[in-house]
Every structure is written in C-alpha cells, then in structure tokens.
From TrEMBL:
Protein's UniProt name: F-BOX DOMAIN CONTAINING PROTEIN
Organism in which the protein naturally occurs: Salix koriyanagi
Stored Pfam families: F-box-like
Coiled coil: none
Region (Disordered): 1-40
Domain F-box: from-to ranges: 53-91
Amino acid sequence: MVELQESQSKDMDEGMTLAMETEGKERKRKRKKMKEEGGRPLCQDPLDLLGRDLMLRVLNNLDARSVARCLVVSLSWNRVASSDLLWTSKCEELWNGKAHIPRLSLVQGVSKLDAYSLSVMDGKRTRIVKDDLCDHVWEFHFTKVAPEYWRNLDPYWKGNGPPMRRYFHKDGSQTADPGDKVWGGHECCYTIVTSIIGEGKIREHYVRINRWLPLAVSRKQDWSWEMSNNFYCYSSVPDPCKEGGTGPLFLVM
C-alpha cells in the first residue's frame, strides 16, 4: 500500500513537472516565432513581463477572491498566486476583528492559502461541538423575560459588577466562578443534541444544561457563538490571541 502511494505521488510529480516544462517551451516557441516574423505580441503574459516579485506586489493589492481566480490562469500563475508571502497578509485581513481563530487553520504545515480557505469554511459553521464549548469562556446573563428576582442577582442587569461567567469541561460538567450568587454550587452537566436528516442536513441542533430548557445555537459575523432560550443567554468571550486557535481540529459540516 505504501509503495503504491509512493508510486502515485511520484507519477503526479513527474506529470506536473512535464506540464510545467511543456508550458515553458510553448511560451519560448511563441516568442521566437514573433521575433523571426519581426513583430511583437499584442498581448503578453504580465507574469513574463513583470517577473515574480513585481507580480506578487500587484496581487497583494487585490482582494482574496480576485487572487483566488488567478490560481487557475496557468501553472506559473498558480505558483505565484498560492505563495505564503501573499496569503499571510490575506489571513491577517480575514482574522482581523474576529472573536475566535479556528484551530484547524493554525496547524503546523498548513499553507496560508489552505489556512484562509479553512477559516472561511469554519466561520460559516453553525454546528457547535464540545471543542467550541470547552475552548471558550462564556458570559452568562438572564433575559428580559426572566423573573425579576433572577435579574436582581444578575450584574448584567444591575450594573454592579463584571458579567457572570461559565466554563464547560471535557468530562461533560459545567462550573462557574467562586462566589457566583446565581450558581449556588449545584452540580451541572451539559449535552449537545444534533438531529440530522437526509444528505447531512441538520433538522435540530441545541445544547441542554441539566434538564433545563434547550439552548438554541447561533453564530455571529465575528465568528463568536451565542446560545440562548427564553430565560438566559450564553455568549462566547473573544479569544483571538489564544495560542493554537480554538474549536475542532477537523472540518465539521
């Protein structure tokens, strides 16, 4: 099996090399023919004209979508347009202002182009998993329709202290800060419920703490999470500088 994979990899490399050599010979043939005919081409490949370094500067001024289109122009353009030098800045632009940076985009060895693509896909994800719950700190507050005596204990409504915080753990438990008036030291556990129908479509998805009302899950434009029901709400605390990123290591559909 290993020998077969190595053979296939070698064949792919040889095929790519042959295609690149063929493309280069074709460009040289066209230039030679134009020179012999005493003419000059009306259209010339900007990459041939400017060279790699200047082309990188030009592409760096384009938005990520435009650069991605350049990947399919030719093999030569693909080598330039997929450069980490180019996509490092695109990733920084994408991540700027985001509450969380996906762990899978920061894995060692992942190219910056792949990191950008994985970040975009993960940012569109609305299915929360245990890694998301456990990696983030969560602010907790009651909603406006919650009983008044609950809201009177909540700094969010009283404005007399920092927001209450909750912590999810890998063993399925949940805790709060010491001295939390609402928490009361009771035991608490959570479950993630996901119901999937045909073709991977999610029919129902929520988080439940103990036997209390289910928490509907939503994702904001800054990639932060919110879980809420009629009486209380959880919001993930931004942690874009967390080493290694947050969330699952693999794409979740």
